[in-house]
Design a protein that fits this description.
- This protein has 145 residues and is mainly α.
- The chain has one domain.
- Helices cover 83% and strands 0% of the residues.
- It is built from 5 helices and no strands.
- It has helices spanning 2-9, 14-79, 88-113, 119-130, 133-140.
- Helix 2 (14-79) packs parallel to helix 3 (88-113) and helix 2 (14-79) packs antiparallel against helix 4 (119-130).
Length: 145
């Protein structure tokens, strides 16, 4: 009997689903924008203190995460328009592909950049961009509206 009450409590109306989908779209866009801004800020810092080579390495490190993450976010954004959204299996496969693409882009940076790559800048930017959503949480707080 308690299980039936719990199932009843989580049923969503169509209006609820539309609100959740709209919020998910906003959050996806805000997250990618926040990560992009963090990457640009870090690259600017490396430019000031390390020169053009460090700034370009920093941008490459940010791009190694931003490009696959942006594609994945776009895929999730599109899924919010479909009934049912993205399935857990598709989400997991997308995450695996995103990580694989990031590793591939890092390999490409190493392969094409050679000795000119500033690895400190690449790794700091990669980590900062990865955690760029924290900036969004700091400035926006809880967005549950």
């Amino acid at each position: 009997m308690k299980l039936d009450a719990a199932v009843e409590a989580i049923k969503l109306t169509d209006a609820d689903r539309l609100k959740i989908d709209a919020r998910a779209r906003r959050e996806l866009v805000f997250t990618v924008v926040a990560q992009s801004l963090v990457g640009l800020v870090v690259a600017s810092i490396f430019w000031v203190f390390g020169g053009v080579s460090a700034a370009l390495s920093s941008l490459a490190g940010s791009a190694a995460y931003l490009v696959p993450n942006g594609v994945f976010a776009l895929r999730l954004w599109v899924a919010t328009y479909r009934p049912g959204g993205a399935s857990p299996e598709v989400f997991l496969i997308g995450e695996i592909l995103k990580v694989g693409a990031a590793v591939g882009l890092l390999w490409l940076i190493a392969h094409l950049g050679g000795e000119q790559v500033n690895w400190v800048a690449v790794l700091v930017s990669l980590i900062a961009t990865l955690k760029g959503y924290i900036v969004l949480m700091m400035f926006k707080g809880s967005r549950a509206k």
